[in-house]
Amino acid sequence: xxxxxxxxxxxxxxxxxxxxxxxxxxxxxxxxxxxxxxxxxxxxxxxxxxxxxxxxxxxxxxxxxxxxxxxxxxxxxxxxxxxxxxxxxxxxxxxxxxxxxxxxxxxxxxxxxxxxxxxxxxxxxxxxxxxxxxxxxxxxxxxxxxxxxxxxxxx
Length: 155
What we know:
By secondary structure, the protein is mainly alpha-helical.
């Protein structure tokens, strides 16, 4: 029977969140033109090595990749709550969806201008995108125009 690596502990997950919460580390991970040792797989190996040195549980690079993808997905879903139009305490709901939301937001929000949640154009009041968190003086029309430009760039 083939081993598929170790199971994640809360401490190991916390180490990944800590690593991602560091703005310099997140920039290294998102770097489109990495230098030697800065490729995504190298960074995943680095994280796996840090976890395995501290907890000796045998986490693999593939498991780190999956965990980072999962954390990013939870964060994006939490950010998307800004544009749902539902009442209530948004931050409370975001933290329920993604417990380390505030810690991750400091690092991840720098990329929201490029990867902001899709703007909802129909039903209810005009939705506010996550980019509004970064520039509260932006008019809704400007955000919609930016969304359209982003849409055409992606097509």
